[in-house]
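@channel sequence for tomorrow's demo:
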Amino acid sequence: MIKIINSLRLPPGLITREFFKTYLDEHVQLILAGQPGLKGFISNLVDEQELSPDYMGPGFHRSPYDLLISLHFENIEAYQPQRGAQGEWEKSGVVTDSYIVEEVEHWDNLPGRSVNIKSPGFKIIPFSCRKPGISKTDFNDHYRNVHSALARKHHPGIARYVQNFVLEKINSDAPDLDAIAELHFASFAEYRDGFYANTESPKIIGRDVVSQGDTSKMHYFKAVEWIHKQPFK
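structure tokens (generated this afternoon):
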């Protein structure tokens, strides 16, 4: 099983709410019809309500992306990038950055996720790049093993935690990325009260993030999730 992540940037002047209505009403069906090899299909739509309080820290800035689409296939040959809603997006001036990733789900304690209804709560989706001088192998190993263990201990409010390690860019002009994470909270209260375990947690997590990540390239957005086709486990 492979996973494709398409990150979409809407052009200035395109109203997000109207685009998302058209996307959910029409584009999702175009993607389902145009990608017969789909094994899973999940959309993450930006939530324009800002995080408050914002626990992400000064290293992260607001992402330029407005929509993140996850497509699962048996193999890369099954993916047809020019099919589905791609033509509609290009006519509207939407920019799509596409990546092949390795998905690592560290835990999932989130009830109530189902097909064709908005999933409970919300996600924070951070995009990360490694520091110059750190190899991709070392970054991935640290992020997958060390950082995930710290996240489990110091982020008790995260109900579902997924790391996506970038294997390859599909479009050559896509920004360089090393990892895209998915931090799913069951409710705002779980985020507010459980993003950090204690007063030392922000310092511990912060030190770990800046030890590996290029803070000038880190960004995130808050999103709501829609599952259109449940990926096979």
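heads up for whoever presents: The chain has a mean pLDDT of 94.
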